[in-house]
Specification:
The chain has 294 residues and is an alpha+beta fold. The protein contains seven helices and nine strands, in the order αβββαββββαββαααα.
Length: 294
Amino acid sequence: MARLLAALITVLLWSTVAEAGVTRLQIDRRETVLNGKPFGAAGPYETLIGKVHFALDPSLPQNQGIVDLTLAPYADPDFVGRAEMNTLVYTPVIRALFRALDRWVAESVEPPASRHPLLADGTLTSVAASGWPTIPGYARPTSPMTTYRLDFGPEWSNGIVTIEPPKIGKAFVGLVPAVDEAGNDRAGIRLPEIAVPLATHTGWNYRRPTIGAPDRLASEIGSYLPLPRTRFDRDRTKDGRTSIAERYAGMDSYLGRIALAAVALVDDGFLLAEDVPAVIQRARTHYAWAAQAR
């Protein structure tokens, strides 16, 4: 019992640092250590197997951090999208966030501030007001997935279903991220290739006509929609997005802006300095392909 109490005190002390409270300690079984060999006055040790249940206070700022990795792609081995798959590489940001998490836990260094679409600044809005540009063949979906309030009965809060199937209530309001002139989300962690675009990257894609229902979305697959290469290409296809040649004087101009965007993410804690050269090299390869005549 003394060892169990000591273990509980240790958990409670740890939970205070993490701003969480232990609500229940569940011991499923006990196992002896080294066949019950005693260790002096402490006696034999044992391993406790079970669960510690915590409760977090949602009002604490430390528990409210949200970051949206803008337009991060969802890989699908059975790709069936009409457009090319979203090509963004977001692993450098994940590396930075893991580093921030480690420093927060080990050194009490605050992680980067939340960054995601908001109603307050208009970056979270209705489909009609989202600012989607004219892209030949790719209108923004007007019917995003609709979710409804479901009534499973008065005991649902206790995990007990008394109404099955549930009663379907009112639909939740569906909102989407607002986009910039290039069609990329304005809020969230904007990777350099989003802040300095060569294409529109989306979190959705239409189904290929060959598999039917081409006006419906293809699961959670994202899209890569290249910007028009020149003003002539833009006018010819009636594309509403500014062309690559109009945006950048050349490779050096583009890479300079990519470098500035990368450094800004480093300053904000969303990119590691050692990953900047790889980000710039990837951008170099991307520009060489996107700016060539096709």
